[in-house]
Amino acid sequence: MFAVIIAGRLVQTDLNAIDETKFMFTLMDLDNVNHIVVFMTGQQAFPEGVGGAVYMNWPSKNGESGWQLIGHITNQKPSSIFKISGFQKGASNENIFSDMSSFPSPEQPHHAQLGISLEPLTQLAQQVPATSGSSVEEGHTFNDFANKMILSFYNFASSFSTSKQEIAEAVVTGVNARSTVTEQNFIPVSVLENWLKQFQNKLSRDVNFWKK
Q: Which PANTHER family has this protein been placed in (predicted)?
């Protein structure tokens, strides 16, 4: 029913059913993993009015478990990318997986568990996922985004730039037209409009496209 993708690895489908509403994956070697993808396989849909809350358990070095809500998936949104880097290991918020003391935690702190709980959509809408980063990290992310956006615009627009000499030669020919030109280049307004539309379309399809 569910599967997990970690970049550079095979799709993980070794799901453990705890009961009819709780499912769990064990995820190995997550020290250098920033994002994971959780998705429905299409074999079975959620019951009407139900979705899946997604939780992560990162044991601390001293073995303490910490279940945290990171998001959810539904029939309308059957897959999602979750950022898992930056979470405090061993930290926990009160949730349906918090009482899973009977289910052993990973023995090594660089392993983790991912839990999926079937819950009413009305309940999912009221839940607030834990955040994975501090304000400093968020600031770095915004700076990275701004730099990527500016670089994208510059590369796109400069590829359409035209010198005044080229414009003059396209209109008239002769020594006089060429002798009065400067080295300044020009970009048509339509180029700016096209770049903006392309950037907005990519952003609407994937808010993290600029990281790839």
A: HIKESHI FAMILY MEMBER, PROTEIN HIKESHI
**Total residue length of the chain:** 212
| pLDDT, one tens digit for every residue, the chain (212 residues) | 899 999 888 999 999 998 899 999 999 888 888 899 999 998 899 999 999 999 988 876 665 667 889 999 999 999 999 888 776 565 555 555 655 544 455 555 578 899 999 999 998 888 888 765 443 344 445 556 666 776 777 677 767 666 666 656 655 554 444 444 455 566 676 777 777 778 777 766 766 666 66
Query: Alpha helices of 36-182 — where are they, by DSSP H?
Result: 121-126, 135-158, 164-171, 175-179
Q: Which residues contact 141 (CB under 8 A, 6 or more apart)?
A: 133
pTM attached to this predicted model? 0.57
